[in-house]
C-alpha cells in the first residue's frame, strides 16, 4: 500500500481514501473515491454520492472558478504546470436520468503537473470504457495504478501515448492485486 501524501495531479491519498482535490484543509471541496461511488464533499454539508453505475462516459477536468470556463479546459504554464489556484471541476455524463454533471474540488497548495492531470483523466476514461470504474473504490488498486502513472516518462504526451500508459497502469494494478 502507498502512503498518505502520494499523489497524481489533483488525486491524493489522504486518510486511507483517494480523493480529487484537497481533503486535508478545512472548508474545502473534494471528491472522494469510495467502494460505492464518487462522494462529493463540501463545507457544511454531508455531501452526496454518485454510484459508479451512474457514470456513463468520459471524465475530464477543467480548471478555474467557474465550470463553464471550458474554452481551453484551463490554462497551463510553459513549464507544464496547471496555472491558477481557483480550483477545478470534474465533468462527466450520468445515466438514469441522463445528464451532464460537474463536481467541484479545491486545489492543493502544491502545483499540479499538467501531464499528471492528463494521465489521471485517461486512466478514468479507460476504466469507464472497460466497465471497471468500481476499481477506484479499492485504495490499494488505485495506489498501484498511481504508482505506475507517476513513474512514467513525460516526453511523449500524445493521445495515443496517454491511452497506452493508462492501459499499462490498469494492467499493472490488476496484476499486482490479489
Structural notes for this entry:
The protein is globular. Strand 5 and strand 6 (48-51) form a beta hairpin. Helix 2 (139-150) crosses helix 3 (159-176). A 6-stranded antiparallel beta sheet has the order 1-2-3-4-5-6. Strands 7-8-9 form a 3-stranded antiparallel beta sheet. It is 26% helix and 26% strand. The chain is an alpha+beta fold and 178 residues long. It starts with 6 loop residues before the first strand and ends with a helix.
Q: How would you characterize the largest beta sheet?
A: 6 strands, antiparallel
Strand content: 25-35%
Structural class: alpha+beta
Helical stretch tally: 3
Secondary-structure element order, as H and E?
A: EEEEEEEEEHHH
- What's the average pLDDT? 86
Q: Level of helix content?
A: 25-40%
Tally the beta strands: 9
Integer-rounded radius of gyration: 15 Å
Oligomer: single chain
Low-confidence stretches: none
Neighbour order of strands in the largest sheet? 1-2-3-4-5-6
Coarse morphology: globular
Straight-line N-to-C gap: 12 Å
